[in-house]
Amino acid sequence: MTHEELLEKLAERLDWEQAKVTDVLESMVTIINEQLVNNVHISIDGVGVFETFKNEERISLDPTTRARYLVPPEVIAVFNPDLILNNRFKKGGDNE
Amino acid sequence: MNNVTLSEIANLVASKVDISKEETEAFVNQLFEIIFDSLTIDESININNFGTFKLTKVQANVNDGSDKNQEFRSEYNVSFTPDSVLSNLVNKPFAQFEKTLLADGIDLDLPIQTEIEGDFELLEKEDLVINEQQLIITEVKDKSRDNKELDIEKQVQKKSEANSNDNKKLPKWPIILGAAAVIGIFTYLLIDDSSD
What we know:
The complex is a heterodimer of chains A (96) and B (196). Chain A is of the alpha+beta class. In chain A, 40% of the residues lie in helices and 29% in strands. Chain A has helices spanning 3-14, 18-37, 83-88; strands at residues 41-44, 48-55, 58-61, 68-71, 74-81. In chain A, the strands form 2 sheets. In chain A, strands 1-2-5 form a 3-stranded antiparallel beta sheet. In chain A, strands 3-4 form a two-stranded antiparallel ribbon. In chain A, strand 1 (41-44) and strand 2 form a beta hairpin. In chain A, helix 1 (3-14) packs across helix 2. With 196 residues, chain B is of the alpha+beta class. Helices cover 57% and strands 17% of the residues of chain B. Chain B has helices at 6-16, 21-40, 84-90, 119-169, 173-195, and strands spanning 3-5, 45-47, 51-61, 72-82, 100-101, 112-114. Chain B has a 3-stranded antiparallel beta sheet with strand order 2-3-4. In chain B, helix 1 crosses helix 2. At the A-B interface, helix 1, helix 2, strand 1, strand 2 and strand 3 of A face strand 1, helix 1, helix 2, strand 2 and strand 3 of B. Strand 3 of chain A pairs parallel with strand 6 of chain B.
């Protein structure tokens, strides 16, 4: 499902104008992104936790050429799904 | 480390956009319902500037932990791939750094990890093929150069041997005659001086 399809579906289900749905979704995404930039965990009951994880600086070794690379640290955004959510989809979607 | 709940996010959204908290909560509930509905029909769902949710197949060990009769079962996990906008935002402090090749002799006290996946390995494999070809060409060139050098050395040896043979064949009588002539001239000059 694309972003546009999601907006349409939200507008239909909430009976809101699509402009309003767009505004609210954009604001929500901006706020969540700001929280993640500030290293704040976002816990959603029954869904999971959005958080950031720092991969420390390391040396990467190429097994074939034996060349060594200095890999800089990297902060990534991760999602740890709740056990309830994973159990719900353990057997896949309806198409399986 | 701070932790916020969806209710607090809903409050922040309500204060930013001119809607009530109840409306925001209804919005959030519907949003996740749509996400779950999409995952139920095994469809990924993309939210701009945030990321994509989808189901990924994983191999789960269903054994009790003993090494015997290892059995794996295919299961699905909900995975989230962050959008490039979010990835760049959270990694902003380290965005200016790049992976760099370490020269020989530089030892750093850092964990070493073998690169086993991704484009990096493929790129290195391609490079290796090129390097192998280059090595073969260089080896052939070296061999041809060695052969040429050997030929030149052989030729030089032959010439020097020929010269030494020529020296052996030369008669010694011109040297003796020359020496005798020089001695004769000196003797004549001495006699001539003493007579004067």
